[in-house]
Amino acid sequence: MTDILKETSERYISYAECVVQAYFVHVFTAACHYVLMIMAFDRYVAICNPLRYAAVMTNKMVIKLSAAAWSLAILLVTIMLGLTVRLSHCRSKIENPFCDNASLFKLSCEDVTINNVYGIVYTVAVLSFSALSIFITYVKIAAVCKTSKNKALNSKAIKTCSTHLAVYLIMFFSGASMTFLHRFPEYSDNRKLASIMFHIVPPGLNPLVYGLQTKEIRQKIAKLWWKTPK
To answer: In CATH, what is the architecture of 15-227?
Structure first.
């Protein structure tokens, strides 16, 4: 964060620090997708099988799903970064606002075909799996809402699912753009904008998107608004 206040020529990071930063950036990215998939499943059970919700989404199940999300992210990212750190590096300039896998293997003058292929396959697999699972989940939720005559249930389902879907779509498109634009140097400015959006917009929106659904928070904000001198 302090580098933002420095001149471009004074922004330095060691290779080891860059690898560590890239590792946590990718683990965070992958885990976010998996956690959003778990949240979609949670909504599916709550809306489509409300009587079984307490039996399905137990504390043990939540812990298992969370552990699986983080473990899978750590495993796949460790393999990806392992393929990159084995390379020698003949360059020293990172063409990105922060370190990531593509920025690291671009520092090498060796053949990086394996890194490119693994990166693309990994990204497509994560994005496709998350998009497909969330799409199927929401289709089933929409089918239940369409056949249900409970207006209160449908209204609550729409509010809950729309916010989750909005956060997911922002994360999906900014993350996909950030990854694929790395392969097209002429769009470097667009890639930098997408990478910044991915790490700022979804986390920044989360308190608003999820917090404003809570009645108590909405009432508190309303009280503060009316008490503020106009």
So the answer is: Up-down Bundle (1.20)
